[in-house]
Amino acid sequence: MILGAVLAGGMSARFGSDKALAELDGRTLIALAVDALAGWCEHVIVVGRETAPAPTLPDWPRPGMGPLGGLAAALHHALDEGYETVLTCGVDAAYLPDDLLERLSPGPSCLASQPVIGLWPAAAAPELEALLHSDQRHSMLRFAETIGARRVQIASAVPNINTPGDLAAISGPR
Ligand SMILES: Nc1nc2c(ncn2[C@@H]2O[C@H](COP(=O)(O)OP(=O)(O)OP(=O)(O)O)[C@@H](O)[C@H]2O)c(=O)[nH]1
């Protein structure tokens, strides 16, 4: 069973406003992300914000740890609820490719270009916990390396929305 988790905290500093609520083709980015994961996952949660079109969880152990804090909350929830695997994405990845799960399987794995998008074993929760308890702030790639996750290259680049300009560039007829 796969738990879907949209990692949706952070500052949206480059975007200048809450990018989860920005719209693409008339839908919010967070709604697009939740729906995308729902195509592959039994259940989808949103981590790192209080209001969302799916059940929400706070980051673990506290906000401000970056996307890994969201992943840690999702892995703990997966363990508690009996899910073996967690599929993650951010709110800033519009239109995930149809074969994403196929490309990421078998996990652990993440996209080389966007490691927030990955397939993670719930059983890796203790390793992530240890990383988060160490002194430095760590990246998704650092965790991927720690657990020997594959870094998957995909030919069709997934647009990464960091700024309003990034969003404008992919808006309109497709
Ligand atoms: N749960 C959670 N998600 C995060 C956190 N920081 C970033 N994210 C998510 O991870 C994805 C990639 O985030 P970034 O673009 O690197 O960071 P950001 O804070 O959204 O944007 P900037 O402030 O411009 O760097 C986005 O979907 C964010 O919502 C966090 O602390 N907790």
Automatic annotation (TrEMBL):
InterPro entries the record matches: MobA-like_NTP_Trfase, Molybde_CF_guanTrfase, Nucleotide-diphossugar_trans
MobA-like NTP transferase domain ranges (all copies): 4-142
A Pfam family the protein falls into: NTP_transf_3
Superkingdom, natural source: Bacteria
GO molecular function: nucleotidyltransferase activity
Keywords: Cytoplasm, GTP-binding, Magnesium, Metal-binding, Molybdenum cofactor biosynthesis, Nucleotide-binding, Nucleotidyltransferase, Transferase
Protein name per its UniProtKB record: Molybdenum cofactor guanylyltransferase
High-level lineage: Bacteria, Pseudomonadati, Pseudomonadota, Alphaproteobacteria, Sphingomonadales
